[in-house]
Amino acid sequence: MSAATHVLEIDGLTLRLPRTARPVLDGVDLTVGASEIVALVGESGSGKSMTLRTALGLLPRQAAVGGSVRVAGEDVLTMTPARLRDLRAGTVSMIFQDPRAAINPLRRLGDFLTESARINGGAGGERAAVRARHLLAAVGLTDRVLSQYPHELSGGMLQRIMIASALMNDPGLLLCDEPTTALDVTTQAEIVALLADLRNTFGTGMLFVTHDLGLAAAISDRVFVMYAGRIVEHGPAGSLFGAPRHPYTAALLDSTPRLEAPSERLAAIPGQPPDLRAPLSGCPFAARCAYAIERCRAERPEPENGVACHRAGELVLATVREGDRPRA
Ligand SMILES: Nc1ncnc2c1ncn2[C@@H]1O[C@H](COP(=O)(O)OP(=O)(O)OP(=O)(O)O)[C@@H](O)[C@H]1O
Questions:
Q1: Which end of the chain is more exposed for a tag (fewer CB within 10 A), N or C?
Q2: Which of 34, 30, 35 has the alpha carbon at shortest distance from 7?
Q3: CA triplet 286, 288, 290: central angle to 5 degrees?
C-alpha cells in the first residue's frame, strides 16, 4: 500500500515521561490504510492507548516526543492548536470502552448526536439532523432513540450511538480503544460486525486497540503486537495468528481463551512486563522468553520483515494450542 493511501502513518514514534528509565513508546512504526482495520494488541501497560491517543495529539503533559504521527498526510506532533482542533473535529474520531461515561446523561440522544456536528463540522441544524438519521439507520437503530435519554438504552445500543456520533463528520480515521470490553459477548460480536460493515460503507480506516486476540482476529486486516512500548511483530491477521514468528505473539495466543472452551486451562505468560522505572537493554521480552539466548539479553533486535526477534529465522514456534488459533 502506498504512503498516499495511509490515513495514519506513525514513524519512529518515541515518547518519554519524567521519572522513567525507558521510553513509554520506543520507536513505534505503524500504518492504517483507507478502509483498513488495524488491530494493536498487547498486555496491559504496553503502550497501546498511548499510541492511539497520539493520533489525536493527546499527549501527557511533560512528555518528550520524537518521530512523526501523520494523519491524512499531516504531522499531528507539529500542528498548531487551531489545526489540531480542526483535525479532531473532522478527520479523526474516537470511541471508548464505556459509552455511558462519554455521554451526558441529562441530554436527549438526538441533541448529543447533532451537537457535535453543528459545533465541529459547521453543518446547519437540519443537515446535522438528516445525517444523524442516516447514521442511526447505518448502526441499526431507529429514529425513536433521538428523543430518548442514555439511561433508557442498553450498553450495546449506547455504543451504537457513540459510533454514529463518531461518524457524524465523516472521519477518515476512527480510533477504537477497547470499544467492546464493557459489553456482553453477544453484543461484542454485533458491534464488531457493525464496525466491519461501516468501514466498507463509509471507507473509514480504523485503529482498534484490544488485549483480546480473538477479537483482533475477527475484525482486523492487519495486526501489530506491542510489548514494552515497541512493536515486536506485525503482519496480516491470517498469517500472524496462523504462524506467529515472535515468541511473545505465540505466548499471547496461548493465553487467549476460546469461546468454545472458556474453562480450558490456559498457558499464562510467566513473569511481568518490564517496569517503566527499570532501564532495558537487549530484547524487552528476553526475561520471559523460553527461547532467549545470550544475544537476546545483550542486543536489541531491530524489526526485520515485520518481526523484531534475533531468532525469528530459526524458530518454528510450537504453541500449546497448535492448529487451534483464533480464526482470522
Ligand atoms: N499520563 C500518564 N503519565 C504517566 N504514565 C502514564 C500516563 N499514561 C500512561 N502511562 C503509563 O504508560 C504506560 C503505557 O500505558 P497505556 O495506557 O498506553 O498502556 P495500554 O497498553 O493501553 O494498557 P491498557 O490495556 O491497560 O490500557 C503504562 O506503564 C502507564 O502506566
A1: N
A2: 34
A3: 85
Sequential DSSP letters for 206-222: EEEEES-HHHHHHH-SE
Cα gap 7→204, rounded to integer Å? 9
Q: Where are the beta strands (DSSP E) in 96-178?
A: 173-177
Nearest to 237 by CA among 217, 262, 214: 217
Atom of ligand 1 nearest to the CA of 53: 18
First to last CA, the chain: 20
**Burial level of 228, CB count in 10 A (0-12/13-18/19+)?**
buried
Q: Which residue has the cell 433521538?
A: 146
The residue among 227, 255, 240, 249 whose CA lies nearest residue 327 is: 240
Name 194's Cβ contacts closer than 8 Å, sequence gap at least 6: 139, 140, 160, 163
- The residue whose CA is least distant from atom 29 of ligand 1 is 45
pLDDT at 265 over 70: no
Residue 252: CB atoms within 10 Å:
23
pLDDT by residue (tens digit) across 238-258? 999 889 999 999 999 888 766
Query: What pTM does this model have?
Result: 0.91
Pocket (CB within 6 angstroms of ligand 1):
17, 24, 42, 44-50, 60, 211, 276
Q: Is the pLDDT of residue 1 over 70?
A: no
Looking at this predicted complex, what is its ipTM?
A: 0.94
Q: Flag whether pLDDT at 138 surpasses 90.
A: yes
Nearest to 104 by CA among 60, 53, 161: 161
